[in-house]
């Protein structure tokens, strides 16, 4: 094949004397070029197609040559291509068009094709096309274009239908094989209504309008019901479409992929669906498109429902033209195209015969170019980003592909460079970078940039061995401004406050807005806490300064929590959480102040919460048991009952006594559950003993907190009702912590109500409360238990002996029974009997024991002879 220059305004002929040699160069270039290249005649039939072109359309060269490739172009694209071809053939002017093709696996590929005309010696006209696959670029641009267009519509207050139409139209425009619909879930949550779907047959959209969601209700009804993506590649065979496949067949629908449209809280708002006319499975790119589109739809729908203004920034990437440089083997430029001249500002005469290094910007090192040439000579091609310099000195970025054109012996004859100016893309990347790291409203750093700076500050602090402070600020009263003046005024107020806060910081400090009216401040390079106190006070002052907006004066205050690293030696996330906790303390303390995080207090709270959780788990796992300590009449030897004592059979720590866990949970709701479990377990044991012929009253300890619950009597009645075979008279309740009783009248009423149920009461640990006499007078308890702390030392301590004697006297005066606990020896018992106290319990009688040991103990128990002798019950010697 050969050609000749036909037009005065065309490129100058290559300085090659032998046409066959030039033809060889061009053929070699076509075969090696990484970009698809083709030549077709005036009727659109392919004459030449390189390997890259065949690979793009996934058709062999043999099947392509002599034919059009219209079957690889979507029908709606054919008219555009025909017009472009005719324009180039008629005018001889180059034309760049964007085209959608069917590539491998019938996946749509978006390409930029540059069409040029040449005329041979017989005056026949041909079209040469060079193609650049820009699918990924267009996908990125589609995401940003869709985001920008839709957000613009949303913020401009356009109707929801118009916004949804725009969402699907952009998707369909860039994906001709797709048909899209959006269904909106009714407020009632039971049915889907048509949002948009203009590319689908009207009879189909009418039929599914109002469909009830549910499992197996097509793709969309199921997706809305399960809140999960539903991919149906073949409608006619999938069970979800059993009731709709006839409708789908009539509408010529073969596949349907549906994605739930979710609110910011994760609730289903509707569904976004992509249909295909034939069986089709989505690619990763398709799934990303589905997610992104559903996300945009969620913004539109939430805006419509909540009437809130959502501001999103988006960038639009535009494609750049390609510049071509052809050099000889020594890298001397022998040809450039007009696009390169337009990009660089150089004319052809200024670059021909020169080395491409005239474009170098100086931004790259010599090693960069050395590596580039090593790759080029090794692999035959190189692709990468280069910063070059225009004639006017402007530095600009290019995406460059360089290919080595070799002859039959493998010797390099030429180098061909194809370059694309990506200045606008780089600019937009910078904007996206800004969006990714800064709050759109206040222009302060956002969470992402905050995390980076905080981690850097921690490393710097460790290296410099100094401190940094993290402060969490929340505005007090901002909600009222939003409620009274609206969100637009609220946004303006936040901007004004943010500017003031930023001005209050030191150089090098960071303030970030993390959402709403919440801010986080990083103060680095601190030698002592007072260094940051000055900043905190300025922040409080700035936050409370009056702000004038729309002829109104508005004012708030701030609550700040602060923690200092490395004193608070945790990671970045924990520092923020600790500062947040401290902020709530400041808010509870009256607002308009700051509070420093207290690590010891936090550890105590965490330890308390862990203890509560451990007890809760122990209840669930049935790790609690009751041990029983007998109570006897020392004068007669009679066993009058047992006291139920709680124990925790921990799987790792063994048997844990109650004093190690009950005081921790006292006053918490879990203590009530434990208390009820003890009563229920005691009633169960009473029932079990009764079935074995053992009649033993059981006393159970109850806390003042439990007794003072409004529903104590009804809860006790429920527990008794669960054990109808147990006489309530066998249950005795020992009141602990009588000093914690607040309303003796209410407690007395509760006790009398329990008496009516048949349950009796005892006052435990009598003598230790500051108002024991008051309780003895007012509370209807038949039994007083002398605290073991007095009984244990009564033989050696005259004060304790006097207390025991006094309690016994009080019991007689008030006509109450009295029992002593802590009886550890025969001598204790003898002394008590002499004082008039004959009821007792303690290690000198029996230690607390599991329930299965009680019956054996009953058969072996005998009262001490010294006690019986005092009562006159001992047999004569």
TrEMBL record:
Pfam families, per the entry: EAL (PF00563), GAF_2 (PF13185), GGDEF (PF00990), PAS_4 (PF08448), PAS_9 (PF13426)
Location of the GGDEF domain: 466-599
Domain EAL: residue ranges: 608-862
Co-factor requirement: Mg(2+)
Highest taxon listed in the record's lineage: Bacteria
Domain PAC residues, every copy: 382-434
InterPro entries from the UniProt entry: Biofilm_reg_signaling, Diguanyl_cyclase/Pdiesterase, EAL_dom, EAL_sf, GAF, GAF-like_dom_sf, GGDEF_dom, Nucleotide_cyclase
Gene Ontology MF annotations: catalytic activity
Domain PAS, chain residue ranges per copy: 22-92, 306-355
Gene3D superfamilies: 3.30.450.40, 3.30.70.270, EAL domain, PAS domain
PANTHER family: BIOFILM ARCHITECTURE MAINTENANCE PROTEIN MBAA, DIGUANYLATE CYCLASE DGCP
Annotated protein name in UniProt: Diguanylate cyclase/phosphodiesterase
Organism: Alteromonas naphthalenivorans
Organism placement in taxonomy: Bacteria, Pseudomonadati, Pseudomonadota, Gammaproteobacteria, Alteromonadales
């Amino acid at each position: 094949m050969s050609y000749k220059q036909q037009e005065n305004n065309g490129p100058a002929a290559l300085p090659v004397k032998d046409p066959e040699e030039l033809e060889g160069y061009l053929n070699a270039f076509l075969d090696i070029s990484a970009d698809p290249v083709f030549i077709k005649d005036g009727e659109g039939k392919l004459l030449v197609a390189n390997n890259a072109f065949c690979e793009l359309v996934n058709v062999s060269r043999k099947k392509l040559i002599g034919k059009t490739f219209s079957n690889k172009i979507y029908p709606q694209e054919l008219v555009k291509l025909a017009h472009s071809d005719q324009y180039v053939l008629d005018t001889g002017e180059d034309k760049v068009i964007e085209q959608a093709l069917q590539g491998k696996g019938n996946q749509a590929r978006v390409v930029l094709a540059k069409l040029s005309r040449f005329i041979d010696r017989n005056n026949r006209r041909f079209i040469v096309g060079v193609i650049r696959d820009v699918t990924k670029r267009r996908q990125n641009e589609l995401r940003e274009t869709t985001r920008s267009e839709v957000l613009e519509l949303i913020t401009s207050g356009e109707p929801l239908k118009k916004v949804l139409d725009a969402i699907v139209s952009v998707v369909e425009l860039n994906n001709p094989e797709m048909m899209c619909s959006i269904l909106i879930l009714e407020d009632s949550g039971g049915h889907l209504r048509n949002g948009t779907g203009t590319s689908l047959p009207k009879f189909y959209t009418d039929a599914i309008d109002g469909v009830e969601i549910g499992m197996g209700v097509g793709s969309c009804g199921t997706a809305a019901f399960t809140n999960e993506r539903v991919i149906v590649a073949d409608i006619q065979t999938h069970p979800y479409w059993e009731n709709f496949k006839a409708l789908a067949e009539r509408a010529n629908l073969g596949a349907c992929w549906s994605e739930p449209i979710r609110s910011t809280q994760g609730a289903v708002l509707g569904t976004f669906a992509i249909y295909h006319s034939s069986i089709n499975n989505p690619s990763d790119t398709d799934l990303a498109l589905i997610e992104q589109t559903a996300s945009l739809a969620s913004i539109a729908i939430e805006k419509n429902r909540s009437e809130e203004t959502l501001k999103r920034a988006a960038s639009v990437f535009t494609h750049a033209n390609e510049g071509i440089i052809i050099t000889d083997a020594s890298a001397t430029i022998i040809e450039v195209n007009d696009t390169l001249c337009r990009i660089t500002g150089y004319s052809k005469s200024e670059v021909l015969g020169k080395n491409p290094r005239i474009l170098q910007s100086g931004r790259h090192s010599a090693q960069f170019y050395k590596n580039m040439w090593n790759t080029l000579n090794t692999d035959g091609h190189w692709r990468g980003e280069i910063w070059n310099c225009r004639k006017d000195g402007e530095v600009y970025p290019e995406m460059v592909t360089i290919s080595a054109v070799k002859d039959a012996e493998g010797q390099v004859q030429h180098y061909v460079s194809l370059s694309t100016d990506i200045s606008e893309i780089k600019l937009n990347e910078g904007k996206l970078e800004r969006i990714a790291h800064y709050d759109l409203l206040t222009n302060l750093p956002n969470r992402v940039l905050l995390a980076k700076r905080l981690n850097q500050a921690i490393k710097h602090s460790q290296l410099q061995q100094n401190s940094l402070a993290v402060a969490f600020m929340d505005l007090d009263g901002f909600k009222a401004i939003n409620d009274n003046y609206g969100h637009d005024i609220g946004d303006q107020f936040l901007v004004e406050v943010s500017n003031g806060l930023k001005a209050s910081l030191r150089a090098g400090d960071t303030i970030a807005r993390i959402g709403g009216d919440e801010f986080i401040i990083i103060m680095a390079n601190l030698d002592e806490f007072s260094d940051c106190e000055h900043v905190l006070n300025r922040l409080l002052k700035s936050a409370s300064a009056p702000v004038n907006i729309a002829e109104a004066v508005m004012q708030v205050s701030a609550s700040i929590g602060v923690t200092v690293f490395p004193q608070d030696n945790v990671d970045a996330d924990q520092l923020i959480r600790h500062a947040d906790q401290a902020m709530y303390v400041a808010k509870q303390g009256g607002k308009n102040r700051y509070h420093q995080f207290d690590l010891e207090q936090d550890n105590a709270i965490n330890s308390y919460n862990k203890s509560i959780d451990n007890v809760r788990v122990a209840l669930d796992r049935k790790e609690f048991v009751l041990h029983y300590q007998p109570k006897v009449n020392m004068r007669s030897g009679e066993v009058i009952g047992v006291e139920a004592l709680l124990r925790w059979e921990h799987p790792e720590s063994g048997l844990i006594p109650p004093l190690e866990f009950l005081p921790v949970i006292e006053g918490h709701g879990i203590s009530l559950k434990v208390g009820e479990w003890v009563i229920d377990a005691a009633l169960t044991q009473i029932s079990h003993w009764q079935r074995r012929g053992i009649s033993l009253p059981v006393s159970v300890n109850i806390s003042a907190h439990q007794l003072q619950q409004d529903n104590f009597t009804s809860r006790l009645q429920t527990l008794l009702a669960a054990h109808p075979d147990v006489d309530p008279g066998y249950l005795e309740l020992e009141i602990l912590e009588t000093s914690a009783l607040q309303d003796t009248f209410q407690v007395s009423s509760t006790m009398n109500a329990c008496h009516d149920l048949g349950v009796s009461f005892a006052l435990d640990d009598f003598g230790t409360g500051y108002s024991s006499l008051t309780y003895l007078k007012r509370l209807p308890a038949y039994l007083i238990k002398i605290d073991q702390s007095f009984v244990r030392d009564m033989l050696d301590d005259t004060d304790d002996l006097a207390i025991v004697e006094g309690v016994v006297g009080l019991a007689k005066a008030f006509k109450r029974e009295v029992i002593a606990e802590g009886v550890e020896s025969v001598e204790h018992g003898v002394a008590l009997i002499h004082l008039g106290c004959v009821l007792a319990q303690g290690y000198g009688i029996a230690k607390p024991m599991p329930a299965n040991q009680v019956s054996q103990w009953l058969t072996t128990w005998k009262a001490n002879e010294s006690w019986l002798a005092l009562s006159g019950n001992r047999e004569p010697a």
